[in-house]
Amino acid sequence: MTAGSTLMNGTTAEHELAALQREHGRPLFALLLRLCDGDRQRAEDLVQETLVRAWQHPEALRADDFDSVRPWLMTVARRLAIDARRARQARPTEVGDAVLENARVSSDHAERAAAMLDVRRAVKTLTPEHREVLVLVYFHGASVAEAAATLGIPPGTVKSRAYYALRALRRVLPGYAADLR
Questions:
Q1: pTM of the predicted model, to two decimals?
Q2: Which residue from 8, 53, 154, 167 puts its CA 20 to 30 A from 105's CA?
């Protein structure tokens, strides 16, 4: 299609637009694909938008100053791509549902503080023997042998007291049962 051809109303305009698409569609798409960093969907959308602009401004296609409308179309396409990129940068990035479903949920400080208070209250309900073993093994990170040496009891006793202490905590803290396994 040359600059001298005109876009008219009705089906003639549709035929002219289709001819414009056939003649300049591939080079426009190639340019826009590069400008859109390989995003085919966005490039296709911008090709369509470029052709809509050509349809809306037939006077630009009729200018006698140039032999082909391709430079005008390429300029419009480039400017549309730049505008689209700026618009995306101005908005926060969109997050799909899949990303939200797989995102880690981090508890806030208040939840963690409330959980600590619950655990402290629950540990106070244990017998002193069970509490000593639990504090040494789970809170101070001592091994069974180290806890046995510190408390002066056999390692088997440390293991059984730790087992029964955790079992008692599971009963007192039913909402935290999964964390205590």
A1: 0.45
A2: 167
Round to whole Å and give the CA distance between 28 and 25.
5
Q: Residue 62 burial by CB count (10 A; 0-12/13-18/19+): exposed, middle or buried?
A: middle
Q: For the chain, how long is the longest CA-to-CA vector? A: 102
In 3D space, the residue among 1, 7, 83 whose CA is nearest the CA of residue 45 turns out to be: 83
The whole-number pLDDT of residue 106 equals 63
Distance from C-alpha of 30 to C-alpha of 169, rounded to nearest angstrom: 66
Going by C-beta distance under 8 Å and a sequence separation of 6 or more, which residues neighbour residue 31?
74, 77, 78
Angle at 63 between CA 28 and CA 49, to 5 degrees: 30
Contacts of 108 (CB under 8 A, 6+ apart): none
**DSSP tag of 125:** T
Element housing 31 (H / E): helix 11-35
